[in-house]
Amino acid sequence: MNGETEPTTGASPATSGAALSGESLDRVAAARERFAAGADDVHGVRPEILVSWYRCREEYEVSPHLQRAPAAAEGTSHSIEHDVVFAELGGLAAGAARQFDGVDGLVAVSDCDGRVLAAWGSRRVLDLAADSNLAPWSTWSERASGTNGMGTALETRRPVLVRGPEHWCRGFHSWMCAGVAVRDVVTREPLATLDISCWETPLSDAVLPWLRAAAATTEAKLRQRARHTGALLAAALADTREAPGTPLAVVDTVGKVVLANTAAAVLLGTPADAAAFAPSDRWMPQVPAVLELTRRATVRARQDPGWSGSTLLYVPFLDQPLPVAVRPVLDGSQVIGALLVFGSRGTGDPELQDAPDTGSPGPRPLPTRVVALREDRWVLLDPREIRYAETDHDNVWLVTDQGRLLAAVRGLDRLEHELAGRGFLRVHRRFLVNLGRVREIEQGFKGALFLATSTRGHEIVPVARRHAPRVRQALGL
C-alpha cells in the first residue's frame, strides 16, 4: 500500500499484500483460530481486520467454517444514483485486466447489500470462484460471508485489503482480495463496491491506489448528479404557488434540506434561501421527524408517482404539531426529493403514519400526555419530560424528570407509535430515546455509539449497530 507500514494489534508488523510472507500468514491463521475459539487477546493482526472479526463473531455470528457464500436474497430498491454507479463501475471492472499486467484475477461489482451483480476474469479464475460462490447473485456482505474485500469495504471508509487467513471464513483462505465502497456524496451511505480478487497470488501494490481512484472518479459523477437534483429541487420551490409567507422547504430523499424560505428555515433550524445557495449543499433539519416523514413519502411516491400526502409534524421551535403537506419532486420517473408546505393539510393522501390507512378523515393527533404509574398513582407526563424508555419484556420503564416510572402502555412498539413525530427515535430493540434530551455522545469500540441523556449521573443508552446511521443523521453527526 504505497510502501506504508500498517499498524497491528501486537508486536508483529503487518506488510503489504505483495510482501506478506508465508510465515506471516501462518501467524494470522493461528490468531484467527484462537479468536474464533473465543480468545480476545490476539497479536499480529491488523486493526481493521480484527475489528471485522469482532463484528463477524459477536454481532453477525457468521460461522468461521463457511465454505461458500450464500445465495442473494432480494435487495434494497435502488435509485438513479445506484444506476450511475453500477454503469461506471461496470466499465472500470471490465477494463481492469489491462491495468495490471500479469495478474490473473477476478473483478466484481456488488450493490450496497453485498450482492454480486457481475464478475469479470479468466475462465480459470471464474471456475475457481464458482466453488466459493464468488459469482453473480451471491451475497458477500460481512453479515453473510464474514471478512472479505466487498463486505468489509461496505463497513469502512477506505479501500480494504484482505489476505488469505484474514478472511473470517475458512473456505475463503485461498483468496487475496481488495475492495472499495462507492458512497453517496450527500449521505455517505454505501451504494456499491468494486473488488479485485486473486487465487493464492499476492495482489499488486498498484491495486489499492487504483481502487481509490476508481471510487473518487465515480463519486465525482455522483457529485454532479447532486448538483443537478439540487437545482431541480430549488426550481420546484421557486415554482410553488402559495400565499406569501407560507413556510416552504425542499428536501432530498433522506430528508436533508436543500433549500428553505425564511419562514420554513426558522421552523427547521437551517439557513434560509440566500445568495450563497449551492445546489449540492444539504442541511440537517432540527426537526428529527422530517427524516422519517421523507423516507415514508419517498417510498409512497416510488410506488405511485402521482401521490401526495399530509400529516402533523411536531416542531420543537413552536413546541407543538404543525400540519405539513408533502409533494414529491421527480426527475422523469425518479423521485429526487419532496416539497414541504407547512401549515397546509394538502389535498392528497391524508395520512403519513405507520398504521395502515383506515379511511379516517385526518391525521391522528399527537399525544399531549403520556400516562405512567408510580406505586398506586397515575402520573401524567409531558413527552418532553421523558429522557428515554426501556423495555423489560412487555413492561416499559420511562426514565423521566420525575424519576423512573412504569408506562401504562404495554410494549415499546406501542409507545414508539404513540410518540411518533415527537422527536423520539428507536435506537435499540430495548430503547427509545428523546433526541431532544441527548446531552453527550460517546464512541466505543468497533464504532459503537452510546447516548448520554444526563450529565449528572451515569445514564447511558446503547445504540444498536443497525440503528447507528439513522441516529447519526438525526443528530447531525
TrEMBL record:
One of its GO terms (molecular function) is phosphorelay response regulator activity. Gene3D superfamilies: 3.30.450.40, LytTr DNA-binding domain, PAS domain. Residues 7-21 have a biased composition (Low complexity). The keyword DNA-binding applies. Residues 1-21 are annotated as: Disordered. SMART domains: LytTR. Keywords: DNA-binding. Residues 379-477 form the HTH LytTR-type domain. PROSITE patterns: HTH_LYTTR (PS50930). InterPro entries: GAF-like_dom_sf, LytR-like, LytTR_DNA-bd_dom. This is LytTr DNA-binding domain-containing protein. It comes from Geodermatophilus poikilotrophus.
